[in-house]
Amino acid sequence: xxxxxxxxxxxxxxxxxxxxxxxxxxxxxxxxxxxxxxxxxxxxxxxxxxxxxxxxxxxxxxxxxxxxxxxxxxxxxxxxxxxxxxxxxxxxxxxxxxxxxxxxxxxxxxxxxxxxxxxxxxxxxxxxxxxxxxxxxxxxxxxxxxxxxxxxxxxxxxxxxxxxxxxxxxxxxxxxxxxxxxxxxxxxxxxxxxxxxxxxxxxxxxxxxxxxxxxxxxxxxxxxxxxxxxxxxxxxxxxxxxxxxxxxxxxxxxxxxxxxxxxxxxxxxx
Length: 270
What we know:
By secondary structure, this protein is mainly α. It is 69% helix and 0% strand. It has 11 helices and no strands. Helix 5 (88-108) packs antiparallel against helix 10 and helix 10 runs antiparallel to helix 11 (243-269). The protein is elongated, with a radius of gyration of 32 Å.
């Protein structure tokens, strides 16, 4: 007797192949990473500058020391010169040499926190333009110098000048701004180089002071006519600010600003 083998069911024979899971379900196992656009140049500069100013407001490491040094130096000059007032070249020399040495205190501290607390490494890992740190640090140093001069220039006028600064102040502000731009550009570049060494407190001034001599000469020559006993105000006029010294300061600022922009990436990497 032959065995009877049942024929396969029609429903089994005609069953369609198993459908693949939909793309939405399949995509759950491999989530798509949303790409974030890195912040722009000026957004990075603004964030870094805000950080620098907040740190200075909380720690007060640079500006108070710079201001105290400048005022103390003017007091020393007031008693050491054995005269009540100075004017002309003498006054300009005292003012700018004092401001220069006070600025060195801020230059030496500019990158110390980033070096000691790993700020350089964190910034290098961020997907941002590295030149943003140069601009933020230079603007922060410029702000420190502006606050310094808000305190030091009135103290200088009170202790060492006979005529008030009210008439000459607008012209003097032009000289101060141009000189501060040069100090900020050169100081930021030198501070980034010196902070990588062990003798950073010594190497910073040794590198910066020779480079800043033209800034001091130009600023002193430009402000000397403003600090005479009888000053006819006016830029470029008799007794006013010599335009050629203003142009010299502006050109020097531009040259060292471009140099700092060109080499800062390499200093940051090394």
